[in-house]
Design a protein that fits this description.
The protein is mainly α and 336 residues long. The protein contains 14 helices and two strands. The chain has a single domain (9-325), classed as Up-down Bundle (Formate dehydrogenase/DMSO reductase fold). It is globular, with a radius of gyration of 20 Å.
């Protein structure tokens, strides 16, 4: 789209706010979903308690970004909201079910007698896998423009598997950062296993996106755009290589670089999101509806923007506060 319509700054502003909210959700809730996915990879209950303790102060706040992103989609782009949720009602329902199961299991395992805790661990893990897989299913369907047929369904399922692996990777890297001793050693092993599946997932999605859309193919592989965009895949590949090297050398005795795998994985999430955003711009529904066509009336957007600018700093401040207060290595799990 060469010429922007009058008042385009409003839809663009809301598109940026929505994109930032969804990206922060993917990174922040991604690591606690990943910890849930990995929870039953060890049979040791004290280790599981330490894993849950590492995400306990964060996970409720992390989900706020999902609420914000979906809320902005609803109020700023109502036409797109209707189309997207109509096309994705099954994975959306499954995601909500998974998130509910996680919340219930998190609270019940805290009060359950010791013999019953493994059951709630199973529910917590199951809810995490369902939520992560559903999000990948939605991403795969979105990339294909909600196409129908067995090939499209299979690609969506495959993207769901890759998303589970990506969340397991960032969750394991979180445990490398926040864990110690045996937990950190286990987390490094889990991260190495998830790394290669996640790498394959990025390659598959990156190859499929331009293949299914001639417009996206032209955007990525025309000159001089190709030269300007080359740093994105090159940096992503470099970060995967960095993770491969670092994870082979963990745990470290001094814990001085424990944060590096998590930071590298978060950077991969950012680069992948940047690539997808560039591919689909300015469409909010691929090849069907742009952000300008889907946007609410300018008068409504201005009023909503005032509320959004009031809420965003509050969410950012309490997120920063939680990270500041509960920084450092995970300690013994306490509910009192």
């Amino acid at each position: 789209m060469d010429t922007l319509p009058p008042g385009a700054w409003l839809p663009i502003t809301f598109a940026v706010l929505m994109a930032v909210a969804m990206l922060l959700y993917a990174v922040l809730d991604g690591f606690d979903l990943g910890v849930g996915i990995l929870l039953r990879a060890t049979e040791d209950e004290p280790t599981r308690d330490r894993m849950v303790a590492s995400i306990g102060p964060f996970w409720d706040a992390n989900e706020t970004w999902l609420v914000l992103g979906v809320g902005l989609l609803l109020v700023a782009f109502p036409a797109a909201h209707g189309l997207i949720l109509t096309a994705l009602y099954i994975p959306v329902a499954l995601m909500l079910m998974g998130l509910i199961l996680r919340g219930v299991a998190f609270e019940f395992r805290a009060k359950a007698p010791a013999p019953q805790k493994p059951r709630w661990d199973m529910v917590f893990q199951g809810g995490s896998i369902i939520a992560a897989f559903s999000q990948g299913w939605m991403l795969g369907s979105y990339i294909l423009g909600f196409a129908e047929g067995w090939l499209a369904f299979g690609f969506a399922m495959l993207t769901g598997v890759f998303t589970v692996s990506a969340y397991a990777l960032i969750g394991a890297c979180w445990l490398v950062w926040r864990g110690e001793g045996a937990l950190q050693l286990l987390a490094a092993q889990w991260a190495r296993r998830a790394l290669y599946i996640s790498w394959a997932g990025v390659l598959v999605v990156s190859a499929t996106t331009p293949i299914v859309s001639p417009r996206i193919f032209e955007r990525w592989f025309s000159l001089p755009e190709l030269l300007g965009l080359a740093p994105i895949p090159l940096a992503t590949g470099g970060l995967f290589l960095l993770l491969h090297i670092f994870l082979r050398r963990f745990p470290r005795v001094d814990n001085s670089l424990d944060w590096v795998p998590f930071a590298a994985t978060a950077a991969i999430f950012v680069l992948c999101f940047q690539g997808l955003a560039y591919s689909f711009w300015p469409y909010v529904v691929p090849e069907k509806l742009t952000i300008f066509a889907a946007a609410s009336a300018p008068e409504s957007l201005k009023i909503i923007l005032v509320g959004a600018l009031a809420v965003l700093p509050m969410i950012g401040l309490y997120t920063f506060f939680i990270w500041r207060i509960f920084g450092g290595k995970a300690r013994e799990l306490r509910y009192y």
